[in-house]
Structures are given as structure tokens and as C-alpha cells.
Amino acid sequence: MADLSHHRADITGHPDVSEMRDRYARVIGDRDVALVDGPVFLLGLYCAFSPWVVHFTASQPALTTHNLIMGIAIAVLGLGFTVAPARMAGLSWAMCAMGVWMIVAPWVVGSSPDTGVILNNVIVGGLTLALGLMCSGVAARSGRPAEM
Length: 148
Hints:
6 helices; mainly alpha; single chain
């Protein structure tokens, strides 16, 4: 067994401590936009499966396809925020536009939607808009451009 009695938990005396701090700051600095990556991904999954959850696949076939495609797109944005947060910061505003579109989609894409369909899309659209605004605000505060 190795003798670890000389091992210290304090690394302030390490010759590369300033370089390690700078690298850590760079790595963590890229994660500030990604604070909503999980909720965005889950919201996208729900949006994609919502026609089957709310049971409007038979009455709104066009809106079913629309929600499936939009949900996949929102989930891909969530994955993008996880994988490459610095590059995805500019798409925050696109997510806001997607949220607004989800709110109006039942009347534009659907045909005489009922209350459940309207509520579903308005809630999903509102949450998408709110998360997109949060991403845009964090990106603007951290000094990265938030436009496309």
C-alpha cells in the first residue's frame, strides 16, 4: 500500500495553478447558457409526444405532424445547448420565435381546435418562449452575441 501521508489537498503551490484556473474559467464560462438545456430537451420531448398525450392525433392530423416536428427541433436545440453552448447561444432567439409560433399554431395549422389542443400548445409555446428569453438574457449578460 502506498504511503499518502505527504499528500496535501491544497494545490496553491502547484506551478501551473494560474493556468489551471484560467482553463477552468473558460470551461465553466461556456456553460452559463446551458443552464436550461435539460428543461428545453424535456419540453421538446413533451411537445413531440403531446398529440398522443392530449389525444388529438385523429382530430388534428396536420397539428400532430407539426407538433412532432417542432418538438424534435426544440429537443435538438436542448441537446445543442448541452454539447456546444457557446455556439448555440445565437439560437436562443430562434427558440423564442418557435415559442411564439407554437402559441399561434393551433389556429394557423389546425382546423377548429378544441380547448385541450389550444391549452397544450399555448403552454408549450409559453414555456419555450420563456426558456428562450432566459437563454438570450444569459448570453447577453455574459457578453456573447445572442443574434443569428
